[in-house]
Specification:
mainly alpha; 20 helices
């Protein structure tokens, strides 16, 4: 069996987006499930779009999410370098080989000439592609232009009247006519290779067994297959992932949507929830289970269970899933991750902080909401006229008086003792339900709803609770 070797090959043109994370995750899971290798390769041949610091940010984001690589620019490996701009001589070697074999040619057409060509083809309703006018150049003409320093590119010469057929692990047999493929540029005028040549060359030399990538690359696959054949190499297995869609079935777009993974982490989504959610964007087990740890995903993931239908990015589901992990992960873990959102919040001590997180995580869905949840405990909301009127009733005043007298002698860290004290108050005062609890919470929080009484008193503390009761006593 051919060793499993997959690669995640992002371009350093900005942040890691949701689609990129899914590709990286599926690479990682597939490699781990079969005992293979997962490689990180940086495809930085488009220098005009490169963003400073993007590589470092991308690697850091993946590390935070728990996706590590067996070979990369950081850890090295037997097939280094793993940055394409450091491999230029190799690409030129094979571009020249293609030229020598007649599978590629030099194109000296200016951008103005190419634009005019496209406009004329569009006006005639023709398939827009390069018309190969530079194929007719004689060796003498080519040498003269090279000697004059005329800018040029190298194009791959695609076959005529040929039908490509290949197997895709997700889509089955795929067929495309060569007429649907342009003579792709493989070396740009600046000397850098395009994705098409560089990816094929690197995948060959790095012995990549499976190319896992988005559906948008499906139409380019014939060009890549042709490159493999022209260079005399065996092609890897192809895997094209489904599109990620909005809930209205439109394509999830970087221009129209927040698709930055780093942004979701900053918004307080947990890495466990993001990994779990993104794994289900196109993949599922036969029993439609929805909650997985990364370790579980490594054990059960298979490419055969990936659907070719578009996967819907449902933020409501992500919120639900994040809420699950907020409640199920260890309290200490949630408390540690929530700390950045509590900067500037006037907490009494660590004990109060832990009590806030313990109560709040049962009611919120993202980490920043814990700090918002804490506000009424630290500074009760201002009461409206109707609420002030309610607190002024005889029943409400009896409730506040009862708690003011009995709270100092009750251990607020003993939930049973607090609940027993409240039950005794209901029996003694003959006041039940909302008539008992509403004035109590209005006095303590400035709102009629909140967590259970033991949690409320633990967060606010006895002394501050008594102060708030005193302010509401008439």
């Amino acid at each position: 069996m051919t060793p499993i070797r997959v690669r995640f090959a992002p371009s350093p043109t900005g942040y890691l987006h949701i689609g990129g994370l899914r590709t990286a995750l599926y690479d990682f899971l597939f490699a781990r499930s079969y005992g293979g290798k997962c490689i990180l390769r940086i495809e930085d041949t488009d220098k005009s779009r490169e963003v400073k610091g993007a590589v470092e940010d991308l690697i850091e984001t993946l590390q935070v999410l728990g996706i590590d690589f067996d070979e990369s620019p950081i850890v090295g490996g037997d097939y280094a370098p793993y940055i394409q701009s450091e491999r230029l001589p190799l690409y030129h070697q094979h571009a020249n080989e293609l030229l020598d074999k007649g599978h590629a040619y030099r194109c000296f057409c200016s951008s103005e000439t190419l634009n005019q060509m496209r406009e004329e083809q569009q006006a005639k309703g023709e398939f827009v592609k390069y018309d190969r006018r530079c194929v007719q150049l004689s060796p003498t003409e080519i040498n003269e232009k090279l000697a004059a320093g005329t800018p040029h590119v190298i194009r791959l010469k695609m076959p005529d009247d040929y039908r490509f057929a290949f197997e895709d692990i997700i889509r089955g047999k795929v067929e495309m006519d060569a007429a649907q493929s342009d003579d792709q540029v493989i070396i740009k005028s600046d000397g850098f290779p395009t994705y098409h040549l560089a990816a094929v060359v690197d995948d060959h030399y790095m012995q990549i067994s499976h190319v896992i990538r988005g559906e948008e690359w499906l139409s380019s696959t014939p060009k890549h297959i042709w490159l493999y054949r022209c260079l005399g190499w065996d092609a890897p297995k192809w895997v094209h992932l489904p599109l990620i869609l909005n809930t209205d079935r439109s394509k999830l777009s970087k221009r129209m949507n927040d698709v930055s993974v780093e942004s979701y982490l900053k918004k307080g989504y947990l890495k466990e929830a993001l990994i779990n959610f993104v794994a289900l964007l196109g993949w599922h087990e036969a029993d439609d289970k929805e909650l997985y740890t990364l370790e579980e995903l490594c054990q059960v993931f298979s490419l055969e269970r990936v659907s070719k239908a578009g996967a819907v990015f449902d933020l409501t589901k992500l919120d639900w899933m994040n809420g699950h992990y907020l409640r199920s992960l260890p309290l200490e873990t949630i408390a540690e991750r929530a700390k950045p959102y509590f900067e500037g919040v006037p907490l009494r001590d660590e004990k109060q902080y832990m009590a806030i997180v313990a109560a709040g995580r049962e009611r919120v869905q993202v980490l920043p909401a814990l700090a918002e949840y804490a506000q009424p405990f630290l500074n009760p909301k201002a009461l409206g006229d109707a609420e002030i009127e309610l607190l002024g009733t005889e029943a409400a005043q009896k409730v506040l008086k009862y708690f003011a007298e009995h709270l100092p002698t009750t251990d607020i860290n003993d939930a049973e003792a607090v609940n027993a004290m409240a039950k005794d108050g209901i029996n003694q005062l003959g006041i039940k339900g909302k008539h008992f609890y509403t004035p109590l919470r209005l006095a303590l929080l400035g709102e009629s709803h909140g967590p259970d009484l033991p949690s409320t008193f633990q967060i606010i503390g006895v002394e501050e609770s008594l102060n708030r009761f005193a302010k509401c006593r008439m």
